[in-house]
Design brief:
The structure is a single chain. By secondary structure, this protein is α/β, with parallel strands linked by helices. It is built from eleven helices and twelve strands. A seven-stranded mixed beta sheet has the order 1-7-6-5-4-2-3, sandwiched between helices. A three-stranded antiparallel beta sheet has the order 10-11-12, with helices on one face. A two-stranded antiparallel ribbon has the order 8-9. Helix 1 (about 10-25) packs antiparallel against helix 8, helix 2 packs parallel to helix 8 and helix 3 (about 55-70) packs across helix 7. It is globular and about 70 Å long. Pyridoxal-5'-phosphate (PLP) binds near residues 53, 80, 83 and 152.
Length: about 350
């Protein structure tokens, strides 16, 4: 089976993790601070706080924003992962789902049409879907409307738009691999101090004991995952380049009648190669046809506004029009030329099978 995603693990990762294991320092440890320092090159922010997942970073961030501003209104696309939305709701904020544009990024016109200017603070949380790094229009909207910009950067390792807070995910198949990990980046010193304490149960050390000074929980990045992150970062940009070339190959060779790929900007992490299929095609059928012939593809994500637990009765024109027409093809850095050609052949096979008279 050609997998849709694969981690990039090499001897240098194994050595670094083994060296850390041998120190027996596995929970809190010095690798976390080293990884945070290394991540500055990617985030371009002063404070980089390691967490045990992006979900944990979002959980603490939304709690902090509640303590600062009270209940806020959080605008975020329905095409997203659940945990940041859940984090916002758990903290007491109101979530407003927005539509996306034809690159599957939060649609600015839809945001404008839903935006409410009242005493509630507004937070806009776009997802850097697929790995794109730039959402300048949204940043511009936030600065004109006194809104906080939180980037869900789970797909992108290095956002290039100016932002208030961003969180990252270091899942095994994400652009930086850990068994589980996350990070929050910001220039906000007060928020950063809250995060450092909050990821560690809300503790503040006093002598050989501690006081509990704020909300917190077990959210910290551990030394073992951080060791893997340290070994991964030097190769992260090279892997981006491989995925970029793989996507270019698919773009050149796939039949036009299938659909079109979403756009990536110059600093994109090229995490996903998302094809929006033309009307008449079906993502579910294509995923099954390819899977049966040995090619795994994926679909991110079930629309939140249509899920059983988080549903909202809202009309999202573009999303609703592309339901069952979004598919991600494999472009990961481990693919060989032969595998890429095979992916193209199988897409052509699917496309032809759809053109047969029914
Ligand atoms: C867009 C997005 N945001 C947030 C997350 C949560 O990341 P984590 O698994 O590190 O908590 C994910 C996970 O896949 C994601 O895809």
């Amino acid at each position: 089976m050609i997998k849709c995603f694969e981690p990039n693990l090499t001897e240098s990762d194994y050595r670094k993790v083994l060296d850390t294991l041998k120190t027996k320092v596995l929970a809190f440890g010095p690798n976390v601070a080293e990884f945070e320092q290394d991540y500055k090159k990617f985030s371009n922010k002063a404070y980089n706080i390691g967490f045990n997942s992006a979900s944990s970073a979002a959980l603490l961030l939304y709690r902090y924003l509640y303590e600062q501003y009270g209940p806020c209104r959080v605008y975020t696309p329905s095409l997203g992962f659940i945990s940041p939305v859940c984090a916002a709701k758990m903290a007491g904020h109101e979530v407003v789902y927005t539509d996306v544009n034809n690159n599957l990024i939060l649609c600015i016109d839809d945001l404008k049409s839903r935006f409410i200017n009242d005493e509630k603070k507004s937070i806009v949380m776009p997802i850097l879907y697929g790995g794109i790094s730039k959402v300048d229009e949204i940043q511009d909207f936030c600065s004109k409307n006194n809104s906080i910009l939180v980037l869900d950067s789970a797909h992108c390792i290095s956002p290039t738009t100016e932002y208030d807070y961003a969180f990252y995910s270091f899942h095994p198949v994400k652009p930086v691999c850990m068994s589980s990990g996350g990070l929050l980046s910001t220039n906000d010193k007060e928020a950063a101090e809250y995060m450092y304490r909050g990821r560690n149960f809300g503790r503040e050390t006093t002598g050989d004991t501690y006081d509990l000074v704020q909300f917190g929980f077990n959210l910290y990045m551990n030394n073992l995952n951080a060791s893997l992150g340290i070994a991964q970062l030097p190769r992260a940009k090279k892997n981006v380049l491989s995925r970029k070339h793989n996507l270019a190959f698919l773009e050149e060779n796939l039949p036009e009648d299938l659909g079109s790929f979403t756009y990536h900007d110059t600093s994109s992490s090229y995490y996903l190669s998302t094809l929006i299929l033309k009307p008449g095609h079906s993502s579910a059928i294509m995923r099954k046809v390819l899977r049966d012939r040995g090619v795994q593809t994926s679909f991110h994500y079930p629309f939140l506004h249509k899920t059983s637990h988080y549903r909202q009765d809202v009309k999202l024109k573009f999303l609703d029009s592309v339901e069952d027409r979004i598919i991600n093809l494999p472009i990961h850095q481990e693919l060989t030329k032969e595998q890429l050609s095979r992916i193209v052949d199988e897409c052509i096979h699917y496309s032809r099978s759809r053109r047969q008279p029914q």
